[in-house]
Specification:
The complex is a heterodimer of chains A (94) and B (307).
Chain A lengths: L9 E4 L4 E5 L4 E6 L2 E5 L1 H8 L2 E5 H12 L5 H13 L3 E4 L2
Antiparallel strand pairs in A: 1-5, 1-6, 2-3, 3-4
Chain B lengths: L6 E5 L20 H4 L4 H14 L3 E5 L9 H11 L2 E6 L6 H10 L3 E5 L5 H8 L4 H13 L4 E7 L7 H11 L3 E6 L4 H5 L1 H4 L3 H18 L4 E5 L15 H4 E4 L5 E2 L46 E5 L1
Parallel strand pairs in B: 1-2, 1-8, 2-3, 3-4, 4-5, 5-6, 6-7
Antiparallel strand pairs in B: 8-9
Classes of the chains: A alpha+beta (94), B alpha/beta (307).
Chain lengths: 94, 307
């Protein structure tokens, strides 16, 4: 769960954290013991793919297709590594 | 953007088998103002209303929340509306079966106090032989797959054990340890002559925390709650509780923090008399009905973080 994130590892939200939609704030939140991360739409889309079946490379490809953009790898990796540093994202070797 | 209340501390009962001298409960907790405890339905309604107001984090506290026979029902109700629930307990007389039942009901996180790193001192401070129950409960918490927080209130009698406490939490596989320097309200203020640490004790404790943080990295989160009286400037009222927290007492009073009840010039609303008008419109907790529109990459940044 430490950075840097390997491309070939599968990514999942840690068991202690829960991704859910917050009706009041109209945004997704990642809840964990004694804290939360409020997400924008892009962040929520990344975490929705962190279900333990996708690799980091696969997530990047999927997002680039969905958004029709290139070069999001650094953005996605930085986002996930920051969450991994808090133990909220796990990188697992396949 | 995040101006709604985020946290609800549900003080389910002020009954407790421990007698810690720094208890944050009101001095008159055995009095009539707090004995008439809310029923199951009342609490379930409070949870729904709190969620509709924007609360996402629920602390099930006390006193000792395990003394509520309906705790499993309350956990289930909180889970149903989408609150992230933490059980804040001494673990005294907790069984593995009950902890498993709470897991099935949807409890998210368990925080268990310990009063010191060794049995003799822990039992002495708690006023109850509870240390062995706690160690067993720590193990069950991890076996059942919960995230675990070890909570310790620090004061003159146990500040020398900061490293041993961190090593204990590490050996238990805890995710977090809260080293909460005594906040001098209520019982702690009453007993301040026995509890107040020296400046040297605090400096040494903080030095050890920094060393252990460097050693442990992300393996164990070490929370150091700033001490009263030895800071350069006074902290904001209760560390700013009322901005994002609220407390509901066992009898249903709504307080901006868990010490507010002592303020005699304030009159507090009671959830028995003030049901939220928004309670009828409780949102589904896992509704993910995002509006259909074109998606634009906006940088994956975290917009805001609260902890």
């Amino acid at each position: 769960m430490t950075s840097p994130a390997p491309d070939a590892a599968t990514v999942r939200v840690a068991p202690k954290a829960r991704l859910q939609w917050d009706e009041v704030r109209q945004r997704h939140v990642l809840l964990y013991p004694e804290g939360l991360v409020a997400l924008n739409e892009t962040g929520a889309d990344i975490l929705a793919l962190c279900d333990g079946t996708h690799t980091l490379a696969g997530i990047v490809t999927s997002l680039q297709q969905r958004y029709g953009v290139e070069g999001v790898q650094q953005d996605v990796t930085g986002f996930l590594e920051a969450l991994a540093a808090k133990g909220l994202i796990l990188f697992e070797r396949g | 953007m995040m101006s709604q209340p985020l946290w609800l501390l549900a003080e389910l009962t002020y009954r407790c088998p421990l007698q810690c001298p720094y208890c944050s409960n009101p001095l008159e907790f055995a009095g009539g103002r707090f004995r008439n405890e809310l029923g199951t339905e009342d609490w379930c309604r409070v949870f729904r209303e709190a969620k509709a107001l924007g609360v996402l984090q629920l602390g099930l506290s006390g006193g000792e929340p395990l003394l509520r026979a309906d705790l499993e029902q309350l956990v289930a109700a909180a889970h149903e509306v989408g609150l992230y629930s933490s059980l804040i307990t001494s673990a005294y007389r907790l069984t593995k079966d009950r902890l498993a039942a709470l897991r099935r009901a949807g409890l998210d996180h368990v925080q268990i106090s310990v009063q010191a790193a060794d049995e003799e001192l822990s039992n002495y401070i708690a006023g109850t032989a509870s240390y062995r129950d706690k160690l067993a409960a720590y193990r069950w918490t991890k076996e059942l797959g919960f995230p675990l927080t070890v909570n310790v209130v620090l004061h003159r009698k146990n500040l020398h054990q900061v490293r041993d406490l961190i090593l204990l939490a590490e050996s238990l596989g805890a995710e977090r340890i809260e080293l909460a320097n005594t906040q001098f309200y209520g019982w702690a203020f009453h007993n301040r002559d026995a509890l107040m640490p020296t400046r040297a004790q605090l400096d040494e404790g903080w030095r050890v925390v920094q060393e252990e943080r460097a050693r442990l990295g992300t393996k164990l989160e070490i929370v150091w709650v700033l001490p009263d009286y030895h800071e350069r400037y006074p902290k904001p009222c209760m560390g700013g509780w009322a901005r994002s927290y609220m407390t509901v007492t066992p009898a249903g009073e709504v307080w901006p923090c868990h010490a507010a009840g002592r303020i005699t010039t304030l009159k507090f609303a009671n959830v028995r008399e003030h049901p939220s008008p928004r309670s009828a419109a409780t949102p589904g907790c896992l509704s993910r009905a995002a509006p259909a529109r074109a998606r634009r990459w906006t940088s994956a940044a975290v917009a805001a973080r609260h902890s």
